């Protein structure tokens, strides 16, 4: 009897390990198969999907694809919503509504809602759960529910090289310049100049680049040191394997 008590838990653990591995392998296969690329678009027929661009599976809500153009080497995370137009199956005319430049990254759970034109410049990186919209609800009539009033629409432009932090919201009419940093949780509207850092709700400029003085106010941390040219992946792995020096070592 003691042997049986030892045997049955071992069998249960073995079965759990086998099932766990099978589930993870199956889910990896589903994610790989369900990803959208130019070669494997699935049911989605974008106006353009560039070389090396990939939409991770599962995708969020996607409609109006003929009016959505995605540049080369974009990374679209899981559960990202991309929509053009107020609803599916509308004829939005000859021009694209939502345009992503080359190398754009949209983090998991982000939403880009383009009821009128939204343009995101090349090499712009968005953290998770960023919300970009060209539409906002109206509340002009105090006697009508806000949700039933016709919305206001204004184009949105995000310049190249921007970084938009987790949970940030970019509202209709926003125009972000080049290499703008948007802090996590910021709510952006209006015009943001090139090389600026904005934070808050509503977002305000908290730091800017001056060609003569540099960043104002000055950065509080030193700039990261880039890797020297010619460093190989093998050399980097070798560095990570080096033992840590003790505080007293010379």
Compile the SSE list and pairings.
Layout: H1 2-34, E1 48-49, E2 54-55, E3 62-63, E4 68-70, E5 75-76, E6 81-84, E7 98-100, E8 105-106, E9 111-114, E10 118-120, E11 125-126, E12 131-133, E13 135-136, E14 152-153, E15 156-158, E16 163-164, E17 169-170, E18 175-176, E19 181-182, E20 187-188, E21 191-192, E22 196-199, E23 204-210, E24 214-216, H2 233-240
Parallel strand pairs: 1-4, 2-5, 3-6, 4-7, 5-8, 6-9, 7-10, 8-11, 9-12, 10-15, 11-16, 12-17, 15-18, 16-19, 17-20, 18-21, 19-22
Antiparallel strand pairs: 13-14, 22-23, 23-24
Region (Disordered): 212-250
Pfam family, one: Hexapep
InterPro entries: Hexapep, Hexapep_transf_CS, Hexapeptide_acetyltransf, Trimer_LpxA-like_sf
Q: What would your notes on this structure say?
A:
This protein is of the alpha/beta class and 250 residues long. It has helices spanning 2-34, 233-240; strands spanning 48-49, 54-55, 62-63, 68-70, 75-76, 81-84, 98-100, 105-106, 111-114, 118-120, 125-126, 131-133, 135-136, 152-153, 156-158, 163-164, 169-170, 175-176, 181-182, 187-188, 191-192, 196-199, 204-210, 214-216. It starts with a helix and ends in a 10-residue tail after the last helix. The relative contact order is 0.07.
Mean pLDDT: 90
Q: Which structural class do you get from the secondary structure elements?
A: alpha/beta
CATH superfamily: Hexapeptide repeat proteins
CATH architecture: 3 Solenoid
Annotated CATH topology: UDP N-Acetylglucosamine Acyltransferase, domain 1
* Main sheet attributes: strand count, strand direction, barrel closure: 9 strands, mixed
Report, as a whole number of angstroms, the end-to-end distance. Answer: 62 Å
Report Rg: 24 Å
Number of domains: 1
Number of strands: 24
| Spatial order of strands in the largest sheet | 2-5-8-11-16-19-22-23-24
**Share of helical residues:** 10-25%
Number of helices: 2
The global form is globular
Poorly predicted runs of 5 or more residues: none
GO molecular function, one term: O-acyltransferase activity
Protein name: Acyltransferase
InterPro entries: Hexapep, Hexapep_transf_CS, Hexapeptide_acetyltransf, Trimer_LpxA-like_sf
Keywords: Acyltransferase, Repeat, Transferase
């Amino acid at each position: 009897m003691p042997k049986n008590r030892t045997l049955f838990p071992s069998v249960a653990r073995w079965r759990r390990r086998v099932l766990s591995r099978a589930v993870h392998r199956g889910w990896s296969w589903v994610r790989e198969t369900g990803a959208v690329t130019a070669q494997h678009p699935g049911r989605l027929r974008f106006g353009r999907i560039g070389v090396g661009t990939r939409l991770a599976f599962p995708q969020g809500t996607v409609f109006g694809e003929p009016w959505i153009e995605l540049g080369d080497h974009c990374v679209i995370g899981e559960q990202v919503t991309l929509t053009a137009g107020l609803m599916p199956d509308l004829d939005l005319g000859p021009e694209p509504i939502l345009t992503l430049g080359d190398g754009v990254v949209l983090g998991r759970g982000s939403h880009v809602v383009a009821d009128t034109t939204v343009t995101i410049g090349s090499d712009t990186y968005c953290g998770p759960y960023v919300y970009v919209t060209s539409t906002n609800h109206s509340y002009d009539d105090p006697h009508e529910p806000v949700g039933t009033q016709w919305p206001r629409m204004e184009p949105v432009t995000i310049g190249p090289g921007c970084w938009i932090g987790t949970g940030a919201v970019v509202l209709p009419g926003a125009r972000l310049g080049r290499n703008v940093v948007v802090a996590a949780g910021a709510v952006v509207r209006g015009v943001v100049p090139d090389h600026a850092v904005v934070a808050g709700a509503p977002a305000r400029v908290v730091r800017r680049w001056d060609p003569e003085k540099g960043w104002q106010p000055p950065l509080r941390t030193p700039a990261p040191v880039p890797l020297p040219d010619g460093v190989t992946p093998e050399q980097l792995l070798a560095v990570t394997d080096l033992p840590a020096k003790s505080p007293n070592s010379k």
